[in-house]
Design brief:
With 304 residues, the chain is α/β, with parallel strands linked by helices. The chain contains nine helices and eight strands. An eight-stranded mixed β-sheet has the order 1-2-4-3-5-6-7-8, sandwiched between helices.
Length: 304
């Protein structure tokens, strides 16, 4: 074994050991996360939660764009956009513009079905309109969602397949989402209904509405797992110790995506919890940001 290979092997082994030795983050650690103020705060509707934050890197651009969608079990009880400023600042420091999205949640007026999904449409429409105002390269775009946000970004990727009779149908979506990074995502509303109930206390009706004469199947326009194939590539990144969305969930979703004809890859973060996945201060962050940069097509050290 040559010296360079030996050193690389030892460094990798050391990083894995450090990852296992680190204390996994808990909910209180996640809620304490913060980050820099955004470059701009831009509303896309009249409700208090209908806005996005733009984080621009230093320099002239144009910059690749990461759309961030926070989790919180689809409710306003567990933080959200404020905590993701931690990631947003770290990504901006690496030359990636960030569109950090707030939205009406299931316990807010107008949230749930169809409002939360309409907010995703509106946030992407607004982003598309910003390309002429800010130096954004929307040809290099990834949507990154955590937990419930993982469901929403995977829904974004499939929204072009929503049936025409749905209030969520858009004949020509403003932006195509070619790459998705789901961090501990809970995207399969149909097959993971019991887990979503036990992990988040949410019922299907809160997230997908109730069946009716024109919509007997509530998952036809809400369940990302049914809006495939959509031509996107998904990275499902999950902490080894995630109990909200365990690694099994990522593997099952990836299998469904591949069976439908889409590309999907699972990345398990050693020694990481559900909250390490989104913290730029966590031991898991180097692997998370590596995936995000791969999704944007940025060269990685081993690719050079």
């Amino acid at each position: 074994m040559n010296l360079c290979l030996l050193l690389s092997t030892l460094l990798f082994a050391g990083s894995i050991h450090a990852a296992h030795a680190a204390t996994p983050m808990k909910l209180a650690d996640y809620l304490a996360l913060s980050g820099p103020a955004p470059t701009a705060h831009i509303p896309y509707g009249e409700a208090p939660s209908q806005y996005a934050e733009l984080f621009l890197p230093a320099g002239s651009g144009p910059f690749p764009v990461a759309v961030l969608v926070h989790g919180g079990c689809w409710t306003s009880k567990f933080g959200g956009i404020t905590q993701l400023r931690n990631m947003a600042g770290a990504l901006a420091a690496r030359g990636i513009a960030v569109w950090n999205v707030e939205y009406r949640r299931s316990d807010e007026a107008g949230g749930g079905y169809p409002g939360t999904y309409q907010d995703m449409h509106a946030a992407l429409d607004l982003l598309a309109a910003q390309a002429g105002r800010y130096p954004l390269d929307l040809g290099r775009l990834v949507a990154v969602g955590h937990s419930a946000g993982g469901q929403l970004v995977q829904w974004m990727a499939g929204r072009g397949r929503i049936p025409s009779g749905s209030p969520l149908h858009r004949a020509q979506p403003s932006l195509k989402v070619p790459a998705v990074v789901s961090l501990g995502g809970l995207a399969d509303l149909r097959n993971e209904a019991s887990l979503i109930k036990s992990s988040c206390g949410r019922d299907t009706a809160e997230l997908a509405g109730s069946p009716g004469p024109g919509r007997p199947d509530v998952f036809v326009d809400t369940n990302a797992a049914q809006l495939m194939p959509n031509g996107s590539r998904t990275w499902l990144v999950t902490g080894e110790l995630d109990t909200i969305s365990p690694p099994r969930v990522a593997h099952d979703y990836a299998a469904r995506a591949r069976k439908a004809g889409d590309a999907a890859e699972v990345v398990i973060l050693p020694g990481a919890s559900h909250y390490d996945e989104v913290a730029a201060t966590s031991h898991a962050w180097p692997r998370v940001v590596h995936v995000i940069e791969r999704a944007l097509g940025r060269p990685q050290p081993q690719d050079r």
